Amino acid sequence: MRSITFSSILIVIIFYLSCVKPLYAEDGYEMWLRYHMIENQKLLSEYRTLIASIYPVADSPTMNAVSKELVLGLNGLLGVEVRVDELVREGSVVAGTPANSDVIASLNLESRLIGLGNEGYLIEETEYNGERIFIIAANEDIGVLYGAFGFLRKIQTNQNLDGVSFQSAPRVKYRIVNHWDNLNRRVERGYAGLSLWEWGTLPEYKHPRYTDYARFNASLGINAAAINNVNADPRILTDQFLKKAAVLADIFRPYGIRMFLSINFHSPVRIGGLETADPLDPEVIRFWKEKAEEIYSYIPDFGGFLVKADSEGQPGPHGYGRNHAQGANMLADTLEPHGGIVIWRAFVYDPEQDDRFREAYDEFVPLDGKFKENVILQVKNGPIDFQPREPFSPLFGALPETNTMIELQVTQEYFGFNIHLAYQGTLFKEALEADTYAKGEGSAVANIVDGSIFDYELTGMAGVINPGTDRNWTGHPFVQSSWYAFGRLAWDHTLTAEEIAEEWIRMTFSNNYDVVVPVKEIMMISREAGVNYRNPLGLTHLYAQGHHYGPAPWHHRAPRQDWTSAYYHRATEYGIGFDRTETGSNAVEQYHEPVAAVFRDVEKIPEKFLLWFHHVSWDHPMQSGRTLWEEMVYKYYKGVDQVRWMRKKWDELEGFIDDQRFQHVKALLEIQERDAVRWRDSCVLYFQTFSNMAIPGNYEKPEHDLQYYMELEHIIYVPDHWYGR
User: Fold this and answer.
1) Which of 248, 316, 334, 374 could pair with 341 as two cysteines, CB 3.0-4.6 Å apart?
2) Which of 119, 144, 168 represents a domain boundary (last residue)?
3) How many CA atoms lie within 13 A of 430 on its CB side?
4) For the chain, what is the domain count?
């Protein structure tokens, strides 16, 4: 037998290793805190020259988090060991407050920091004892942490640090994420696995994901989290679960995140042994007072209660002849001594109401000024329910004496779950930039919720995020971008959807121009594509009921009419759309002028909202010169074409993006195209039964007849179709 030499074995091993893929594959776990070494060698060299060490930061839980993040981030991004150094030298990064850092105190920054509040920060290149250093300065520890993430973001996105001078502060007080997690670990409208919270192993086992979750949120400036479903299980307030929640609160605290709990209004009956939950009953008041004291004994910085009441079967004060203000104020009184607040959701609708659109306004506007100062109303961006496109809720601008915040949805309940790519930054901006004219031109929704129009005592933005146990947290990798967009806009609503998208791409995938440009193009078109192939021209809620995944415009029977599709589109042989003008429900009257005048005028209304407010004939002339029917067909086909373009654009990125995430998104886009075609053909064929008009000859014809698509509603697989408790 021929002998095998060591050198020949080595050659075989080298050849083998050169042919196989590396064992490590990116799976999206790091999200936007992906501290991989800078790809641009020239820029990397510049950063290494500029940054030499980290000067010791003060010893506190939050400042320790600052130190850990700077070490982790700089070491990863620069590919060299950036250590904590006992001396301030050229290239030191000094992070602190005037109270905890002698270096920061010596720079006399108080006059510049005073306007940044408790959470704002300053990043600057300056001199100290003749040495050029970078400072991350703030008034409080948490501001330093936000500044540390801001500093790392600049490096992640390849920004120039030479001479940098940047300051930032949040525009709203409460930047809160809402989880719809149930105690059995199922997540309502969650499409990324089970709940993050392992109730069975808490409080003993502290899963590392809890800390990473806190890091991700803190990196965006998110400062509050309601960890359980608004369709709340009363047991969350029992001793066994408060002990568990307290451990999570301890983990979140160094990252500036205050714990909130969603509560069931009927808890005095369900877990308190009372016969009533009447908010004016002395025993009920005593129950909530004692419960608040118990919660604060476990969680001293507890943020407060999030409440869904008298909505979708959830109990509330109406059951006892009381109004929302009486219910909210009773809870607010019990929390006020501890510094807590009540976030009261304005998502309500009465089955007897002729137009669900009107309900929240009609219920809450008469109560304006009757809520206590530590109550804030949480209002969905639109008047119905997180649809792909809605006009802004008329409650924005209608409550000058009531603290009001906006609720946005990151989890893709109406956008294809964890399957479809639909960057929500453009939707969020559309809602925030809508002008309410509450105090004349310039009264945008964003300026309502940040308190600059009505001088609210409390301000805030909420996002329903619903991450789960999937390794990448969100199911679809691009749902991460909507979480990111929510957080960045909650901090600063003046940012554009485009610049937020670019930040996220650079932090999550690459700074390579050949990646940034096409991925941003995909993201910026994705939401509009989803609108086009689902609900164009103001159509809404055409979904199969329950799961809200596929199309069912034909759905017309349900326990409530506003749970059907027919209720919203109102198609007949004469036309389509919901008349909300004076000849219909007159919901348009809820808007300020001149918004109301524009919405009520069929000739002036933006066509994207046409069928929200008007029932028009199939041959109604559109701006394009097409009839309504032709325009509707055009939009449905355009949506499919946009998804096909997204697929083509993504395919061109092969080799520029790590293989695992590339193949994942590639497969999902293939499914999305299939679903978009199904949506298009289902809706066009169904509405054709009313219009009796042909599909123009230049379009590909549906592969099947309407009956085929109607049957799919009941037999097709729906990802994670479960949605109840």
Assistant:
1) 374
2) 168
3) 20
4) 3
**281 inside domain:** yes
Task: Name the band, by pLDDT with cuts 50, 70 and 90, for residue 226.
Answer: very high
Inform me whether the pLDDT recorded for 349 exceeds 90.
no
| Enclosing H/E stretch for 263 | strand 258-263
The CATH number of the domain where 593 resides is what?
A: 3.90.1330.10
Amino acid letter for position 646: M
Cβ contact 512:656 at 8 Å: yes
The CATH number given to whatever domain includes residue 136 is 3.30.379.10
| CATH code of the domain covering residue 430 | 3.20.20.80
User: How much is the average pLDDT of 255-275?
Assistant: 98
235 CB-near residues (< 8 Å, 6+ apart): 183, 241, 271
13 belongs to a structural domain:
no
The DSSP 8-state label assigned to residue 94 in this structure reads E
Which of these, 27, 25, 23, 24, lies nearest to 480 by C-alpha position? Answer: 27
Which residues, 6 or more positions from 14, have their beta carbon under 8 angstroms from its beta carbon?
Answer: none
Q: Does 492 qualify as catalytic in the annotation?
A: no
- Nearest residue to 470 (alpha-carbon basis) of 236, 152, 209: 209
Query: Which residue range(s) make up the domain with 211?
Result: 174-495
Residue 95, classed as helix, strand or coil, is strand
Active-site residue identified among 140, 188, 233, 385: 385
Residue 7 has pLDDT above 50, yes or no: no
- Cα 627 from Cα 629, distance rounded (Å): 5
Angle among Cα 350, 358, 187 to the nearest 5 degrees reads 60
Q: Quick one: 232 and 277 in the same domain?
A: yes
Residue 467 lies in a domain: yes
Q: What is the pLDDT of residues 179-192, one digit of tens each?
A: 999 999 999 999 99
pLDDT of 724:
45
Domain ends where: 437, 471, 495? 495
The pTM of the full predicted model, rounded to 2 decimals, is: 0.95
Task: Considering the candidates 312, 499, 670, 711, report the single residue annotated as catalytic.
Answer: 312
Residue 10 has pLDDT above 70, yes or no: no
Nearest to 422 by CA among 438, 410, 437: 410
312 is catalytic: yes
Catalytic option among 310, 413, 503, 673? 413
Q: Which two tokens stand for residue 577?
A: 């759309």
User: 481 with 559, same domain?
Assistant: no
| CA-to-CA separations, 352 to 355, 380, 534, 561, in angstroms, rounded | 9, 21, 28, 10
Residue 264 falls inside a structural domain: yes
